[in-house]
Design goal:
alpha+beta, Rossmann fold, 8-stranded mixed beta sheet, 4-stranded antiparallel beta sheet, 20% helix, globular
Length: 656
């Protein structure tokens, strides 16, 4: 399954003393959501301004052109991220785009003079594709109303074409197209009509021909499809239950064997090499006993595997490509003690973009030149933060009430205190995702305000093997929530958390967990923040985007079936149990969210208000699943800090 696949109420009698102490009742009492949010924003007086964490960086997402002549990056123009370029080795820059409605967040070099980028409209996730050349000439390549466009393959060996998929013919099904970036001509390559056996992903070979795909039969059986030539029909190489994953990534250098991720007949996902003539004899290229292989990339130089990624306590990379391996070794020597990631390089592998990352820094970008071994600093991400002491993220683990070992990350506040301190349980989304070690602006923001932050990789998280993921099936609000609760208890038992000062916060599934925590364990939390979180699993499943239809049966298996498991879904949907809530809650929602629609937040708000509970609710009309616009991010996190300061005050560190 290709699943990677995010505000509040106040019990008036409980908060009158707090409001009075804050001066709220000594002036005009705020009556609208906007007024309440404004008051919360005004209350944030942290040592580090919120903008230092969440403003758009001056330079980020560096890439290098295929011929190595240009370096590109994203930088702000009228508070929106746009594409800039500069000649390699020079300082002067030129802005190529002038987006003012939405940030450009995804782009790539198509050839030595053309870049491709994607944008949606107000967070609706219906992406459109544009091009811009190095002279600044822009062109609309593919733009259709209420149609989502995805890039299937950048076709690095073809300077004038890319492969895309669109749900233009049927909102529930994507079909592959070849897009000529010069003429704008779009040619459909295959039909995808059978809703009972749809193709959910397509893979091109090294010539740009579609020769592998994945289909889902009756929602539960997956097929790895293959064909030798473009004019031949696909045939099924491997059939399996959807939980036994095989995900084709690319064709090997010989253009016959398939490089894929697979957990067939094993618990941990491995990187394999598959011979289409002998699909039962899979060659394991790399596996790890502790965790799944996360991803692998193809080498532009050899066509084979360039890099392999996995995550245990930290991110780790293996470089089968000898040049990448040598470059990584050399850069590591030049940047001792730094974690590095090679994010881009030219076709001759002469110049490399390197990014450093850490838990206490958003990192730096460098240009490495292989011919002379020179490493040049390009930029620092959010350089204002260098003046402040940020907090290390420490890997920890604990045993749950039923004996499962769960990994987590604990970040102590910048105050230096480590005992009897306020804690924010920050629950990741997905839920089939995971928290990883590294810089997280939310974590460092909270730590700078005097809070410890605990991030739990509860059962159902991805990356720890098939059994661990499946242990979370149909456990929303139950064992998955227990794992978070047990993390709270672990913090209390070890003297870290002040039992009266624990908050829960999350986005998407994490937003659900925040609602569930306050609903099903009301004595555990002092307050909660739900950011684009579902409140009703019936309406969540009923309002999913049409293009998730092929995987709906899988979601029923992981969450629960609305008819067959109706009693379960009713039991674990917070909206039906609002009378249990006693702690303050902050809810944030994007009006155009297609994953967790605004119905999820509004029915929660309505249910609480119908019981006489006053609700503060942040709704952004120009956002979708999470706030992408800079001004909305800043307002949300300022309000979040003000909310915590109101209901769970901490002792923030002194200003430097």
């Amino acid at each position: 399954m290709n699943s990677k696949a995010f505000r509040g109420f106040i019990v008036l009698s409980a908060i009158l003393p707090v409001l009075n102490g804050c001066g709220w009742l000594n002036s005009k009492e705020p009556t609208t959501d906007e007024e309440r949010i404004a008051r919360l924003v005004e209350m944030d007086h942290g040592a580090i301004p919120v903008a230092y964490f969440f403003r758009n960086p001056d330079q980020t997402a560096y890439q290098i052109s295929p011929d190595g002549r240009f370096i590109s990056y994203l930088g702000p123009y009228q508070s929106r991220l746009n594409i800039y370029i500069q000649h390699t080795g020079q300082q002067d820059t030129v802005r190529l785009t002038a987006a003012t409605e939405r940030d450009i967040t995804s782009y790539f070099w198509k050839n030595e003079s053309t870049l491709i980028y994607l944008q949606d409209n107000a967070g609706d996730e219906n992406y459109r594709i544009y091009s811009v050349d190095t002279s600044g000439t822009e062109k609309v390549l593919a733009e259709f109303r209420n149609v989502r466009i995805n890039v299937v393959d950048e076709l690095q060996q073809n300077p004038s074409e890319i492969l895309i998929s669109m749900n233009k013919s049927n909102p529930a099904l994507f079909e592959p197209y070849r897009l000529d970036i010069n003429s704008g001509e779009i040619t459909r390559l295959a039909e995808n009509k059978d809703i009972q056996n749809p193709v959910t992903s397509w893979v091109a070979d090294n010539r740009g021909i579609l020769r592998a795909a994945v289909s889902v039969e009756e929602g539960t059986t997956t097929h790895l499809l293959y064909r030798e030539q473009e004019d031949m029909p696909f045939r099924s190489l491997i059939s399996s239950n959807w939980k036994d994953m095989i995900t084709p990534l690319f064709f090997d250098a010989d253009n016959t064997h398939i490089i894929a991720l697979s957990n067939l007949d094993r618990d941990k996902t491995a990187l394999i090499r598959l011979d289409p003539d002998k699909p039962d004899q899979q060659e394991i290229l790399y596996s790890n006993e502790e965790v799944d292989v996360w991803w692998a990339e193809q080498s532009v130089r050899t066509g084979g595997v360039a890099s392999i990624y996995y995550i245990t306590d930290r991110k780790y990379t293996i470089y089968p490509d000898t040049i990448l391996h040598q470059v990584a070794e050399q850069v590591t020597k030049l940047l001792p003690g730094k974690e590095i990631y090679i994010s881009s390089y030219d076709n001759t592998m002469s110049h490399f973009i390197v990014r450093t990352y850490a838990d206490v820094s958003p990192g730096n970008f460098y240009l490495y030149t292989r011919s002379n071994g020179q490493l040049d600093h390009l930029s620092s991400v959010n350089p204002e933060l260098a003046a402040y002491h940020l907090s290390p993220m420490k890997p920890v683990s604990y045993t749950t009430r039923d004996g499962l070992t769960v990994s987590a990350y604990l970040t102590l506040p910048a105050t230096g205190k480590d005992k009897h301190i306020p804690v924010v349980m920050m629950v990741h989304g997905g839920p089939m995702s995971r928290d990883v070690w590294g810089y997280r602006p939310e974590v460092q923001l909270l730590a700078s305000r005097g809070y410890a932050v605990m991030q739990v990789n509860f059962r159902g998280s991805w990356g720890f093997g098939k059994r661990f993921t499946e242990a979370g099936f149909r456990e929303w609000g139950r064992k998955m929530q227990d794992d978070v609760s047990d993390g709270v208890q672990w913090l209390i038992d070890n003297g870290i958390a002040d039992p009266d000062k624990v908050a829960i916060y999350g986005a998407s599934y994490g937003g659900y967990a925040a609602l569930a925590g306050l609903t099903f364990t009301p004595d555990l939390y002092a307050c909660g923040i739900s950011y684009v979180g579902p409140s009703n699993l019936f309406t969540l499943l009923d309002n999913l985007p049409a293009y998730w239809e092929p995987e709906k049966e899988m979601m029923y298996e992981t969450i629960g079936h609305p008819k067959q498991d109706s009693s379960l879904l009713c039991k674990v949907s917070p909206v039906f149990h609002v009378s249990s809530i006693t702690a303050p809650l902050f809810i944030a929602q994007g009006a155009n969210d297609v994953r967790v629609t605004k119905v999820e937040s509004e029915q929660m708000v309505e249910a609480l208000r119908s019981k006489g509970v006053d609700v503060v609710y942040m709704l952004k009309e120009d956002e979708g699943h999470g706030f992408r616009l800079e001004e909305n991010r800043l307002e949300f996190y300022q309000a979040l800090c003000g909310f915590l300061e109101t209901y769970m005050p901490a002792s923030p560190p002194d200003k430097p």
